[in-house]
Amino acid sequence: MKRTGPDPLTKAIIHLLCYGLALTMLVPFLWMLSASLKTNQEVFLWPPTLIPRSWEFKNYALAWEVAHIGRYFMNSLIVTAVVTTFSLFFNTLAGYCFAKLRFPGKNRVFLGVIATMMLPQQVAIIFAYLFIVRLGYAGTYQCLILPGLAGAFGIFYMRQSIQAVPDDLIDAARVDGLTPFEIFLWVVLPLIRPALSALGILTFLGSWNSFFWPLIVVDSAELKTLPLAVADLSAAQVVQSWPILMAAATLIITPSLLVFLIFQRQFIRGIAMTGLKG
Amino acid sequence: MKRATQETLYAYGFLAFPLIIIAFFVLLPSLGSILLSFFHYDGSSTVPPRFLGLDNYKLLFFSEPLFWGTVRNTFAFALSVVPLTVGLGFLFALPLNADWFVGRHLVRLLFFLPSVVSIVAIGFVWQWIFNPSFGLLNGLMDALGLPPQPWLGHPRWAMPCVVLIAAWHGLGFSVILYSAALQNIPADLYEAAGLDGATAWQQAVHVTWPLVAPTTLFLFITGLIAAFQVFDLVYIMTAGGPANATNVLNNLLYRKFIENDLGVAAAISVAIFGIILLITLAQAKLIRTSHP
Question: What residues make up the domain containing A264?
Answer without folding.
Answer: 59-277
